[in-house]
Specification:
Layout: H1 11-17, H2 25-29, H3 36-46, H4 53-71, H5 88-105, E1 109-111, E2 119-121, H6 125-144, H7 150-155, H8 159-164, H9 175-190, E3 195-197, E4 203-205, H10 207-221, H11 234-240, H12 247-250
Antiparallel strand pairs: 1-2, 3-4
């Protein structure tokens, strides 16, 4: 009767079993391509933050307080009528989605296919972000008001590029006008306790909130969530519930974390 053999648990044990000091398969085991956890992290990191699971949870927690800040502010002068097309919750979603994606991509970086890493460094990224934020509001308002052309735009691979090709825009703002709307949303974002500035002076997620979000991201990556859904860390819920007192009152006498920018001058 042959002796009972123990099961093999690694490629190196397989090499010992076949009489080799180093089996060829151990080379496969050591290749980075087989590091599935690192590959998963890299793949997830390439996606916009707002579409990742952790980003969606942050949006759920932060949209309501930001909408409250927007409700307490008058819209930019001259834009009252056109901005009635959306409610404060929709504006809060647009602002949070934009700032989370930009922080994740790199505050002073923009996409450029001519570069090897598809990124280029821009000057004055704060002002550029405000203009881009206003442009996203303009495009969403334009899309919401479309009639016959809506099917054409929805069928396009890039909705905003299709909007730009329209010959007659109902919402046609200059860059200065887009920046005015961006200023309005920026000031509301500056009240949110979940945002801070990094060592370069660029906006970032506050360290306490970032730690809680990283904890959730780790659970999602390693699939430790419950069958009914992922556990949002209690710390993140607690931090996000601190919205009754605006930051300007909570931090009286302390320098603002996210600098409010002066309105962009009209051309």
């Amino acid at each position: 009767m042959p002796p009972k053999q123990s099961s093999l648990h690694s490629f190196s044990e397989l090499g010992d079993a076949v009489g080799r000091t180093r089996a060829n398969v151990t080379l496969l085991e050591e290749r980075p391509v087989l590091d599935t956890e690192a590959a998963t992290r890299t793949k997830v990191g390439k996606a916009p933050y707002s579409v990742q699971k952790v980003g969606r949870e942050a949006l759920k927690l932060w949209i309501e307080p930001l909408a409250g800040y927007l409700a307490s502010r008058e819209p930019p002068k001259g834009f009252e009528q056109v901005l009635r097309g959306f409610d404060d919750t929709q504006f809060a979603f647009l602002a949070l989605r934009s700032i989370l994606d930009q922080i994740h991509f790199g505050w002073d970086k923009r996409r450029d296919r001519r570069k090897e890493d598809w990124k280029r460094t821009v000057k004055n990224p704060d002002m550029l972000f405000r203009v881009e934020l206003g442009q996203s509001v303009r495009d969403e308002l334009e899309f919401a008001g479309l009639l016959a052309a809506k099917k054409y735009v929805k069928a396009a691979r890039k909705k905003y590029a299709a909007l730009a090709r329209l010959k007659f825009r109902r919402v046609d703002w200059t860059n200065a006008e887009c920046a005015q709307v961006g200023d309005w949303l920026w000031d509301a974002l500056a009240e949110m306790p979940c945002f801070d500035t990094d060592e370069h002076g660029f906006p970032c997620i506050h360290a306490d909130h970032k730690a809680a979000l990283d904890q959730l991201a780790e659970e999602v990556l390693l699939r430790r969530g419950r069958p009914g859904g992922w556990n949002v860390p209690a710390t993140l819920r607690l931090l996000s519930s601190r919205r009754a007192i605006p930051r300007r009152l909570r931090e009286a006498g302390r320098p603002a974390r996210m600098t409010r920018l002066s309105p962009m001058p009209a051309p």
